[in-house]
Design brief:
By secondary structure, chain A is mainly beta. Helix content of chain A is about 0%, strand content about 60%. Classes of the chains: A mainly beta (about 110), B mainly beta (about 110).
């Protein structure tokens, strides 16, 4: 079983829709959590960190559930430019930074 | 600022050849890392460095060497290339421990080993 699991998708949703992804992790010692975005054939870029209390950045909301060991990403009012692969990242030390394999999102007009 | 730069962008090697992937950053970051990305798998940490002269192994270090003689540069050496090392390689830097801070990635090197 992978230490960090994501639904690979693809999620294909219309512009303006709300879409949510989950990411589960297996090691309860995990301490830091992030969502990165990766466009096709490009490098990953930080979308947002995930805090225990949950956090919001514009149309994006991230939540952490330590008891059930998952993090989530909610995108409201989706735009065509949101089409990308979203990578969940879970870490517990400098040598244990685990990337999920990503969830592909495609927004259609 | 150029951020994190990597060269070459593409490379084809024959089995057994050696080569060095170059990585440089101009953000004065102490922390630098090398990852590989394979289809259907997340990025996997190869080696990382917490400062000039200090390196350590990540999850998949076998077949790779690194050194960090300056803050700016963090080259990755493939000692004897194998087809299993066909992958996309990303270098990253961060201002703090990469487990806790945003990582800035270079554009990647696409390596094929035949």
């Amino acid at each position: 079983r992978k230490e960090v699991e994501q639904d690979p998708g693809p999620f294909n949703v219309p512009e303006g829709a709300t879409v949510a992804f989950n990411c589960t992790y297996s090691n309860s010692a995990s301490q830091s959590f992030f969502w990165y975005r990766q466009d096709c054939r490009k490098e990953p870029k930080l979308l947002m960190s995930v805090y225990s209390s949950g956090n919001e950045d514009g149309r994006f909301t991230a939540q952490l559930n330590r008891a059930s060991q998952y993090i989530s990403l909610l995108i409201r009012d989706s735009k065509l430019s949101d089409s990308a692969t979203y990578l969940c990242v879970v870490s517990r030390s400098a040598s244990k930074i685990i990337f999920g394999s990503g969830t592909r999102l495609s927004i259609r007009p | 600022n150029a951020g994190v730069t990597q060269t070459p962008k593409f490379q084809v090697l024959k089995t057994g050849q050696s080569m060095t992937l170059q990585c440089a950053q101009d953000m004065n970051h102490e922390y630098m890392s090398w990852y590989r990305q394979d289809p259907g798998m997340g990025l996997r940490l190869i080696h990382y460095s917490v400062g000039a002269g200090i390196t350590d192994q990540g999850e998949v270090p076998n077949g790779y060497n690194v050194s960090r003689s300056t803050t700016e540069d963090f080259p990755l050496r493939l000692l004897s290339a194998a087809p299993s090392q066909t992958s996309v390689y990303f270098c990253a830097s961060s201002s703090g421990l990469p487990s806790s801070y945003e990582q800035y990635f270079g554009p990647g090197t696409r390596l094929t080993v035949t």
